[in-house]
Amino acid sequence: MVPVWTDLGLGDFHLGYLRDRLKREVDFIIVRDRKPWMLVEAKKADENPGPSLAHFQKQTQAPLAFHVVLDAEYVDADCFARPHGPLVVPAKTFLSQLL
Question: pTM for this structure?
Answer without folding.
Answer: 0.93
